[in-house]
Design brief:
Keywords: Signal. With about 325 residues, this protein is α/β, with parallel strands linked by helices. About 45% of the residues lie in helices and about 15% in strands. The chain is globular. The termini are far apart.
Length: about 325
């Protein structure tokens, strides 16, 4: 009898201890959506039909908070909830760091489980998606189960395009013909992962980008290793990234559009180096020569362009 009682006590203590341990390791709790019977009158629409590019699916709202709203198509697995936290954190950090993007902070996130692949953004200064900030991302249904790999990278990448395309209330990316789609995103994503405290993810991304090479503007160009990371590391981390876009908005040619401005032309390579030098506060032409060679991706010498840029944009100093 004594042994039975002792066994029961031990069992209760074990269960109590186990429950306490489980509570410690539970993942971060999700914020619950408002129940249907007490719907927030200011909630985003529960159903939303796409009407951009080739997209025309009816999407269903899965989650919203003050910063984002997530919609799924019918192919998405509803048990995939990690984008709620990830997209919220990336967007909030980006909004705070790069100065905001319009009057509506809430980012629309459209996720596809196979019908459409890849990703693209929409901007609050453009009618391509109805003057809203949106990212549209598609992968195979099972691939969304990976919360730290490609799906996370795609979400961050597309949010980064909103920075590139609308910073400081100015539409378009005059840098895109130079860095493509998009070498700048490599340093943007590293900074995001590091700033959010995702140390392993940031280190893995950093290591991967260090060995990533491209064939523009010359063969075997290491954009991250030889250009963006040295600038980031030496000249203030995210401060120098942000300053580049701010200087462009202040000094590069623009014209007025509804609710903002847009760039009227693209940068040439010499202007690109000049504006990055302004952001860094130091002449980066030698770094550029070492990283890119002396010609742009079209075979034109960029050093004469650089000298002319210093005359055309004399307010950019370093």
């Amino acid at each position: 009898m004594i042994n039975s009682k002792l066994l029961c006590v031990c069992l209760l203590l074990f269960l109590s201890f186990s429950c306490q341990e489980a509570a410690v390791i539970l993942p971060e709790e999700e914020e619950e959506e408002v129940p249907v019977d007490s719907e927030d009158p200011n909630a985003p629409p529960r159903l939303w039909r796409e009407n951009w590019l080739e997209h025309e699916l009816l999407l269903t709202r899965q989650y919203y908070n003050d910063s984002i709203v997530i919609y799924h198509d019918d192919d998405m697995d509803p048990s995939v909830t990690w984008p709620r936290r990830a997209a919220t954190k990336i967007w909030n950090y980006t909004w705070k760091t790069y100065g905001g993007f319009g009057s509506d902070i809430r980012l629309k996130v459209a996720l596809h489980g196979g019908t459409y692949g890849g990703g693209h953004p929409g901007y609050y200064l453009s009618n391509s998606h109805g003057y809203i900030n949106i990212i549209d991302v598609g992968l195979g249904r099972q691939r969304w189960l990976d919360s730290v790999g490609e799906p996370l990278d795609l979400i961050a990448h597309e949010i980064g395009h909103i920075v590139e395309g609308t910073s400081y209330n100015t539409l378009n990316s005059p840098s895109m013909p130079i860095w493509g789609d998009s070498k700048w995103m490599e340093i943007y994503q590293y900074d995001v992962y590091k700033a959010l405290g995702w140390a392993d993810k940031a280190q893995n991304w950093h290591n991967r980008m260090l060995v990533t090479k491209d064939n523009f503007p010359k063969e075997n160009t290491y954009w991250y290793r030889d250009w963006f990371y040295p600038i980031y590391d030496k000249y203030g981390n995210v401060t120098v990234l942000n300053k580049y876009f701010k200087l462009l908005s202040q000094h590069f040619p623009t014209t007025s559009i509804p609710n903002g401005r847009k760039y009227t032309r693209d940068l040439n390579f010499g202007e690109f180096i000049h504006f990055w030098s302004g952001a860094a506060g130091e002449d980066l032409s030698e770094l550029a020569l070492a990283a890119f060679g002396d010609k742009d991706r079209h075979g034109n010498p960029w050093q004469p362009q650089f000298q002319k840029a210093k005359q055309d944009f004399i307010a950019i100093t370093y």
